[in-house]
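name: query_chain
kind: protein
chains: 1
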Amino acid sequence: MKHEDEAKAAVQSQFGKNAANYVASESHAKGDDLELLIQWLQPKASDRALDIATGGGHVSKALSPHVQQVVATDLTAEMLRAASAHLRAAGCENVLFVRGDAERLPFLEGAFDLVTCRIAPHHFPNPQAFVEEAARVLVPGGQLLMIDNVVPTDAKLSAWRNRIEKLRDPSHVRCLSIEEWQALFQQAGFVEVRSRVRRKSFSFLPWMERMSCTDEQMRETEAFILAGDAAWQDQFRVVAEGGRVKSLEIEEWMVLLKK
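structure:
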C-alpha cells in the first residue's frame, strides 16, 4: 500500500505542475483515436459516461455532444481545474468534474453505461483494481474503451522501454503488454469486441519538455536510449543523429470491451 500511495503522490505532483501542457498537447488533443472512439462506442443520447483519469479532458469533450452526461474524474485537482476551464470554454455544459482514484472509484455499482480511459493506465499502481472498478461501475452490457501505450511481451525489451518512460516521467509505473491486459479484462468478465494497435512517433525534445524535464533528466534519458541494444532501438524506431536522439516510436493499443 505504501508503494501505491507513493506512486499516486508522484502522479499528483508531476501532472499538477504540467496540467496546462496536457490540455494543449497536440498528441492528446487531436489524435484520430478521439473520432474512432465515438465510432466504436456509438454513444446514445441517454447514456451516462465516465471518463477515468481525464487529463486535459479531451475524451470528455469528444463524448459530451453525444451523451446525457459525462463524469470526468482525475486524481490530480490541478488537472481537473485545467480540464474544466478547457471544456467550459468549449461550451461543454453536461460534464461534471469529480476528483477520484481510478482504483477506488467514488461511484455506485452500475452507475454508468460507458467508461473510457485514455493514455493513463500506465500510471496506475494496480491495473487489476482499475479493471475491476471499471466493471463494477458499468451496467450489465455496458462498454469500456481503453487506450494506452503497450510494450512487447519480451521481458528485457519491455523493461528497457519502461525504464525510458520512468526516466522521463517519475510518475510512470509500467506499460503492460496486450496479453497482460487481455488476461485482466477476461478475469473481470469483459468480452473484447474490437481492438487496434498503432505506432506513434514522438520528436524527442518536445516529448521530454511536455513533462518539464530537467537538463539532467534529458541527458540521462537520451544516454540510456542510445546505450540500448541495436535491436531494441530498432523495435522502437529510434532515430539518432550526431549522438543525439531525434525521435522514437511507441505502440498504443485501443480496445473496446463489453461487460
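note: The longest helix spans residues 2-17.
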